[in-house]
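User: We ran a pulldown and think these components assemble together. Before we commit to crystallization trials, I'd like a predicted model of the whole complex to look at. Sequences follow.
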Amino acid sequence: MFATDNIFKTICLICAGLVGLLMIGFFVQLALSSVGAWKEFGLSFLWSSEWDPVDEKFGALPSIIGTLLTTFIALVIALPLSFVSAFYLVDLPGAIGKILSQALDLLATIPSIIYGMWGLFILAPVMQTHVQPFMVDTLRLGKVPIVGRFLGEDYNGFGFFTAGLILALMILPYICAIMRDIFAMTPPMLRESAYGVGCTKWETAKDIVVRYGIRGLLGGVFIGLGRALGETMAVLFVIGNMTQMPSALFDSGTTIAATLANNFPEAAGIQQSVLFALGLILLIMSFGIQVFAQWYLNSTSAKRGEER
Amino acid sequence: MVFKLHKRETRRGTLTQKQMNSQFNQTEHQAKRRPLRFRKWKDKLVRLFSIFSITLAVGGMAWILFTVISNGLSVIDFKFLTQPSKPYGIPDNGIANALIGTLLITLGAAALSVPPAIAGGIYLSEFGKYSKVGHFIRFSANVMMGIPSVIVGLFVYIILVIPTGSFSGFAGSVALAIIMFPLVMRTTEDMLAMVPYTLRESALALGMTRARTTLCIVARAAKNGLLTGILLGLARVSGETAPLLFTALFSDSWPTEFFSQPTANMPVLITEYATNSPFEEMHAAGWGAALIITLVVLLINIFTRIMFRTRHAK
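Assistant: Here's a predicted model for the assembly, 622 residues in total across the polymer chains.
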C-alpha cells in the first residue's frame, strides 16, 4: 500500500463518517436544548394536553395526536391507491406505462411549499364549498351515529381531513415508486406460473406478488409514513393551527412540525425549550420509522441477491 | 405460498381415490359456474380502481401545475424579476433579492456538501463496500434521508443561529447542505458501483495507485452520474422551506450580508406572502415565485432524466 492511498482512504472515511456524526449530533443537541422543558414538566409533558403560552403551561399531546391522525388519514387514502396503481403500472405496455411512471416520479419532486400553497388557495376553498357540504349536508354523514362522531358537523375547509388529503397526494408517488420496484423484482417465473394455473391479474397480485415482496412493500409503507410524519409546509398551510385536542376529522388542529414552524418565531425561554422537546419527539418517531423501513428494504435486497 | 401448496398436496396424498374423486367433482362444479365470473368481475373492478387512482394522482399533479402556471404567469415580467421585494403598498414589487438569495444559499449548500459527499460515496463504493463500517454508514445515510427537514432546521438553529446571535443566509446553506449530503453520497455510491470492475483492474495493473485509479478513472467514467446526483440534490433542496424558516428567515433587502443577516429567499417569500398577507397583490407575487421554483425543480429533474437515459442507451 502507498502512503497516498492510506491518506485518501482515511479522508474518504472521515467524510462518510460525517453522516453518523450528524445523526448523533441531532439527538444530542435537541436533547440538550430541551432539558428545560423536561425539567419543568417532567415526562407528563408527553400526555398533557394543555397549551397556554401566557401561563407557560405546555403539553405535547395535541401535537402528537394531530401528527398521528394526519399521517393515518394520508396512509389510509394513499396505500390502496398506490398499491393498485403500482401493480398495473408495472404491466402497462410500453410507452404509456413509462410516461405515467415518469409523471408520478415528477409528482414526487414538486416542493412541498407548492402543495401547501395549492392546498391553501385551491383545495381548502373547494373542500369548504363543495366536498364537505356534500359529505355533511347532502349525504348527512354528520348524522350517522359513528361516522358522524368522527367527521364532525362543523367545517371550514381547513383541518385534519384536508391536511390528510394533501399528504396522501404527496406520499402516493413515493410509496408507488417503491412498490413498482418490488413488483418488478418478483421473478417473472412466479407470476407466469400463477397466470398459468388460471389466476386473474388481481389474484396474482394479492396472493403471489404481495407474499413474495411483503417486506419490501412494508418498507415502502414506512418510507411514506416517515415522509407524512415530518411534512411541515403543506400541513402548516391547511391544518388551521389550533393547539387543541382533535375531536373530529373536520376540526382544525396542529401537528408537531406545524407547531414548530408556527410558534418558533415568537418563542422565547421555556416555550423555545418546549419546541425543542417537540422536535426531539418528532426526531425519535421518524428515526424509529426510518430504521424499520431501511431494515425491511435491506432484507429484500438481500433476498434478491440470493435469487440471482 | 410454497409451504401452503405443499401442505395441501400431502393432505391430498393421504385421501383415498374415492374421496379424491368426489372432492374433485365438487370443486369442478363450483369452479366452473359462479366463481369464475365472480373472479373476473373482481379483477375488472380492481383494474377500474387502478385506472381511477392513476388518473387521480396524475390529475392532481396536472391540477397543481395548472394552478401554479395560470396564477403565476400573469405576474412575471421584467420588473418582477429585477426589483427587490418591498412591503405592501410600495409599487414595483419584485422578487430579485429572493432569487439571488436562493441562488446563493443553494450554491453555498452545494459547495459545502458536494466535496465531502463525493468522498463519502467513494468510501462506500471503493473501500467499505462489504465492511461493517460501510454498512453502518450506508444505513445511517438512508435513515438521514428520511429525517424531516424541520428537524434539520432546528439543529442548525441550535448550532449556528444561537451562537452567532442572528439568522443568516449561511446558516440556511448549512441546513440545506445537511439535507443534500446523504442524498449525494448515496447516488455517488450507486453511480460508482455501476462502473465496470475491469476498468479498475486495468488501471491498477498499469501501476496506478488506488487513489489515482479512483479519481482519474472511476470517477471520470461515472462523471455524468455524479453530475446527475448533484443536480437531483440541488433540485430537492431548492424548494425546501421548513429549514430556511429557522435559519435564513427573510428580509426585504438585497442579500449583501450573507454571513450575518437574514437573507431573502424564494420559499420563505412564498410562505410570507401566502399566509401572512391578506392582500391579493402579495398572493399573486407568491404565485409568481412559486411558478419559478416549480419550473426550475421540474426542469432539472426532466433534464437529468433525459441525460441519464441517453447515457444508458449508449
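Chain A touches chain B through 94 residues (CB under 8 Å). That may be worth checking against your pulldown data before setting up trials.

User: Thanks, that helps.
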